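Cont'd.
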Amino acid sequence: AQKITQTQPGMFVQEKEAVTLDCTYDTSDPSYGLFWYKQPSSGEMIFLIYQGSYDQQNATEGRYSLNFQKARKSANLVISASQLGDSAMYFCAMRGHNAGGTSYGKLTFGQGTILTVHP
Amino acid sequence: KAGVTQTPRYLIKTRGQQVTLSCSPISGHRSVSWYQQTPGQGLQFLFEYFSETQRNKGNFPGRFSGRQFSNSRSEMNVSTLELGDSALYLCASSLGVGAGESYEQYFGPGTRLTVT
């Protein structure tokens, strides 16, 4: 079974500052992928960043970076230079793979963190 | 490249009715997954289809069913609707599922279903 825990129900950050959203996970799968999604009030889930469990480097996508610490089972999202448009719900999610690398289709999500960016 | 599309975007149904939701994945994507999002339960996995076959199924009653067509488009059906089925239903597509293939899942805008 897989479990994702996001312990911060809400976070506040000043515009142009950096913010870290926490995510810890638990799984027995031999390999797995970790995802972060952004969900604005419109409801659409926007893919932000992906980290494979065997990737040596932390993933980065523009202002988003994933601080992956495998031993601690954490996959925190770092948003640099926050913008007002970053205000949204953020979800951490996991997808397991079997030993052969074939993924299981299911994404397991955390409860989400609401990020509010203040001007 | 067009994203994942879902139709309809909004739907109001009455208890006991049935509903069919449609999802068109990103061109070339073969895997389609469905999720239900409610304020109380969060995001829950319904099922996943790959090459017209259901590969995984979540813990939902048999009233929830789905299928995938040869062009990878997918539909989900909910029969005998209950008030608790009111939710945002999200569809996601990914390129593949095999080793070395992209596992990134891209979501559509969702269908907001209200059951009265």
